[in-house]
Amino acid sequence: MNIKILTPEYVVFEGEVNSVLLPGKNGEFHIMKNHAGIVSSLIGGKVKLFTNSVDEAFAKNLTKENDKDSIFSYSIKSGVVEFNHNKGIILCE
Question: How many domains does the chain have?
């Protein structure tokens, strides 16, 4: 599935991921391939991307969670996510 993370200043990440873990108002929630369409607000926390690789252009924006697994994170203050048909856009600050 394709995920794009945008801030008002720049594109943080754009690419294929296996799944994404997001900080929601009522707790973290996981979006996986073929997830039902969703629009949700996000609170401060970490957006975690589960992916096999990250393009070098975006790697500088992300933190690798550990050496064993391919989990990358990006800290946000707030935001909104829209996901539909295996494409998601995360607008955040």
Answer: 1
